[in-house]
Design a protein that fits this description.
With 196 residues, the chain is α/β, with parallel strands linked by helices. The chain is built from six helices and eleven strands. It has a six-stranded mixed sheet with strand order 5-4-3-6-7-8, sandwiched between helices.
Length: 196
């Protein structure tokens, strides 16, 4: 049977329906909770194997790099499966959007890099990771994602491969559809809900 990543997201409970307030402050009735997948090693291993298959020749790199936090797990697993090292692009400082390689990580100039991340909405973490790769004169070959929530709008100047693409509609808090306004609010990443 062919691997169906969206069915896998449903199976592990990562594709959620309800009323969610996103980090942007906008509201949505659908949400992908990446950690419902990433906390399951076998499911993560299978998703990474499918990512490698989808990348084809683009997976012929020297290094796999992911941004903290979810990108660390994916970079490690992809690196393991490809027999390559992994590196992690961390925030320059708390609250900053810029990223860099820390903890003694050395990336040689000219290194061919695959950048990987979990769920992309605006592409900010991916772009900051690509900038960290460029800052050490390495070459980004491609970007691989579990989920592209940008609706296919992101363009990083290198090929982008995603196991799933969603164009999830969002609304500002002051313009919610009636059915959504009637549901309790969940803030992803927490278990808190606000019934107002």
């Amino acid at each position: 049977m062919a691997y169906d990543f969206i069915e896998e997201l449903k199976r592990v409970g990562a594709l959620k329906q309800g009323h969610f307030v996103l980090a942007s402050g906008r509201h949505s009735e659908q949400y992908v909770e990446k950690f419902d997948l990433l906390r399951q090693p076998q499911a993560t291993e299978q998703a990474c194997a499918e990512m490698i298959r989808a990348l084809g020749d683009l997976a012929q790199v020297d290094l796999v790099v992911g941004p903290t936090t979810g990108g660390i797990l994916l970079a490690f697993e992809l690196g393991r499966q490809l027999g390559l090292p992994a590196a992690y692009a961390e925030r320059v400082q708390d609250g900053a959007s810029e990223r860099e390689f820390k903890r003694g990580t050395f990336v040689a100039p000219g290194t061919r890099v695959l950048v990987v991340d979990d769920v992309m909405t605006t592409g900010g973490s991916v772009q900051a990771t690509l900038d960290a790769v460029a800052a050490v004169d390495a070459e980004a070959v491609a970007v691989a994602l579990l989920v592209d929530r940008s609706g296919g709008q992101a363009d990083f100047g290198v090929p982008l491969v995603a196991l799933a693409e969603f164009d999830i509609e969002t609304w500002p808090a002051d313009d919610l559809p009636e059915h959504l306004a009637a549901m309790p609010v969940t803030k992803p990443g927490t278990t808190a809900s606000d019934p107002t």
